[in-house]
Amino acid sequence: MGKVFESITEAMYRFILEQPMFFVATAPLAADSHVNLSPKGMDSFRILAPNRVAYLDFTGSGNETSAHIAENGRITFMFCAFTGAPMIVRLYGIGATVLPESAEWESLRALFPAYPGIRQIITAEITRTATSCGYGVPLMDLVDQRNTMIKWAEAKGEDGLVAYRAQKNESSIDGLPTPLAR
Asked: Around 135, how many Cα atoms within 13 Å sit in the side-chain half-sphere?
């Protein structure tokens, strides 16, 4: 049975650290807009405190998370056990986009590996956590993390990434503006 908590428990902390991937969900306020759900990996998630987390957000085909956070702040993270005992952990919170020009950037950036293509860091103040059974999640074996994004970012180079973000990441698919590094 699922349980609800006010913060990340020690058991959740250990569980989250073991997961090679997680999911991030955000949504705009307009009823006719699109909910966004994105898978993430590559050692990009950090628990900063029982009620605060951060993850590296890489340059991608869209920037929905940042646009939705700028509009309403809502964000949910989900971690699933694909090996071992079934379990799902969800973290609900209020997100913020930290850009390279932000005062907080250097201290947060230092917590993660040096990857090419980092666009921003998403932080969240966690207001609720929950566990659920995960009985329907399949058992799967991790072969490896993909390196496709790293190779793509290296091939683009920093100037190419800036141009790509200007073309593809300045607004959501529903036309909401995104904070974007200049």
From this structure: 3
